[in-house]
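Quick one: structure tokens for this chain, please?
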Amino acid sequence: MNQITLIGIKNDQYTYFKNELSKALTLMDEPYHLTEVNALDAIVESELESIPALFINGKLVFVVNGYVPDVNEILQSLKKFVAPITALNSILIPIDFSEISKNAFIYGQNMAHHYGQAIHVIHVTPSLSTKLGFADPIGIKTKNLRKTVEQNIISNNLKISTDIVKGNVVNGIINSAQKRDTDFIVMGTTGKTNNTFLGSISRKISLNKKYPTFLIPENYLFTPFSKIVFAGHLNTQNQKLAEKLSESKLFSQAMINIVEIKVQQDVKFKEISNKKTKNYSKILIQDNDVVSGLTTFIKKIDADLLIMYKPSKPFWQNIFHKSTTKKIHNEIKIPLLLLH
């Protein structure tokens, strides 16, 4: 996910620049997360010579100094700095030392071994002071993390780095992903503390708007992607995204099935239409429940990955309601990739 940061004071020049940027991003047709920094103290802290200023993936691209670039000039810069969604080259894997997080680590290694990504493994821990009587927690956690990696490594040819991160778990994972220029996150769907710790954390991480996230079910073993279910509306936006995904090294050998579930009371899984193209299929299904319809279709084709893309629309806001998302995690026993 591309990180776009616009810094400046809201005035006519800022508004014009933002509008031109929005047009360019639409033409670029790549997923992004836009952050606006308008607070005066944050602007001063940035030490910019002039504003508005535009950062793309942490790199300063434009500093407006009297002249505001138009949509075409911004678009040319986007093409240089924006990473396409197909660029999935680095993986962040959080570990909480549970068996499920270790399995996600093994899954991520097999993915990296097959597709050629680098891996960064982290463990997030609260900051505990030794003055309060605690043993050196960071030193202990560091040893545990290294031991876990060594005991579960599948190949010495993989590029794996490790780190202990202090602080809040969710913020620690997201900040680490940003610091390491991560392309996507791989993590288990349940973990410690009565099988709910990493489960609740994974839901929060997967709903972040910055990084694609793979959620790996308990004991699931990696296989190269071949049959993918992409849950979403059969619209042009999702078809374009399916085309882009089919160009990536992860999914170039897979058939992507865009599946839309129309909720219809008193109907139990009815396939209404199935249209195939070179790189993907478009399937319309009726069912009395979205998750039930997806589960039935996944079993029918023996899919190895479910992809969900969450634009800001009422349908997906309902799908990603906490109770529904938990139901998806509990009933769909294949990896889930969430894109934003």
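Residues 107 and 222 are 5 Å apart (CA to CA).
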